[in-house]
Design goal:
74% of the residues lie in helices and 1% in strands. By secondary structure, it is mainly α. Strands 1-2 form a two-stranded antiparallel sheet. A hairpin with a 2-residue loop joins strand 1 and strand 2. The longest helix has 31 residues.
Length: 336
């Protein structure tokens, strides 16, 4: 995906967030520590998983930090770290999924090799832990270690579900919680940890990130069936992975669902049966679920605003929550 295209699609969000915040996010340095990183690794990362992208995760980290009254200079390492962890997960996912494209360009495994893609992802993860340790805040290190652990658990659970064909609403939400919501929760909790908020506030922040992440993933699943997706079209299906839209489609077509459970390849079934009734309805069901999750985010944000107003100027809190609301609204209308 070209940088110009991404910026054009994000213009409404940039307007709501403000140019100074956007400049801070776009200027975030994402190189791994060059003292110990071979130049070839940075070059590979720069032209693949660290190239382009919406940088939504560091943006969320910054706007949530501003809302929580955190000095933005203290958020550079957490914001940078979560984007690097996200990039590492993309490096590994492209190998696992046998991807060929990422954001409209050759995926990292195609640009280099499976081995180098895995090693580059591993290096990014190690670099993140080193950088966070240098902050001296062990709670941040602990929080990030749980995120990295959750990403692995989510990929494992998804692999098991694909292999055993044991899909359910609960399983799909757990996968989304591990693979997507854990990352979004970091963006919300890390500023709270830095600011020293109590456990109750951190719990609310974690829940906000969870609901935002699940909503994000559900919207992402819907986009797989739109013409705007920049991923390999229906790559999940080719790899035998059922996302939330396909699962609802199967539930709406019991005969096809039974054929799937009896061992027929989901990609084969999709190509043969996609004209069957139910796809539009399946998309609508998942879209409604995404809307519910994002509506929960507005509610949690109200609760956080009320709590913060007890010790801070309420007008200032109202002003600084607007960029957070802008991200929720962006996801509600997201088409990339």
């Amino acid at each position: 995906m070209s940088t110009c295209y991404v910026n054009a699609m994000l213009n409404p969000l940039v307007t709501d967030i403000g140019p100074s915040m956007w400049k801070r996010v776009k200027g975030l340095e994402l190189h791994a520590d060059s003292e110990r990183c071979h130049e070839a690794i940075n070059e590979l990362l720069d032209k693949t998983v660290l190239s382009g992208g919406k940088r939504l995760r560091p943006l969320l980290t910054y706007v949530m930090g501003e809302f929580l009254q955190v000095d933005l200079e203290k958020l550079e390492t957490p914001a940078r770290s979560i984007e690097m962890v996200h990039a590492a997960s993309l490096s590994h996912d492209d190998v696992i999924d046998q991807a060929t494209q990422r954001r409209g360009n050759p995926s990292i495994n195609v640009a280099a090799s499976n081995k180098k893609a895995v090693l580059a992802g591993d290096y990014l993860l190690a670099s993140v832990i080193v950088e966070l340790t240098k902050t001296g805040n062990l709670e941040l290190v602990k929080e990030m270690s749980h995120v990295i652990q959750d990403l692995a658990k989510g990929e494992w659970l998804q692999s098991d579900a694909s292999q055993d064909r044991l899909y359910s609403h609960d399983i799909l939400e757990k996968i989304a919680a591990y693979k997507t919501a854990s990352v979004m929760s970091w963006c919300c909790v890390a500023p709270g940890i830095i600011a020293g908020y109590n456990e109750n506030t951190l719990k609310q922040l974690r829940l906000f990130g969870h609901e935002l992440g699940i909503g994000f993933q559900l919207v992402d699943d819907v986009l797989d069936f739109s013409g705007t997706s920049q991923k390999d079209q229906q790559l999940d299906l080719k790899n035998g992975i059922v996302n939330s839209v396909i699962y609802e489609w199967l539930l709406l077509n019991p005969v096809i669902h039974e054929q799937f459970n009896n061992g027929i390849d989901i990609y084969e079934l999709w190509n043969e049966k996609r004209s069957s009734t139910g796809l539009d309805k399946a998309v609508a069901i998942v879209s409604n679920k995404a809307s519910e999750k994002l509506s929960n985010c507005h509610r949690i944000l109200d609760e956080l605003s009320f709590d913060l107003s007890a010790t801070n100027d309420s007008n200032d809190i109202a002003k600084k929550r607007k960029p957070v609301e802008a991200i929720i609204k962006f996801l509600e209308k997201r088409n990339i």
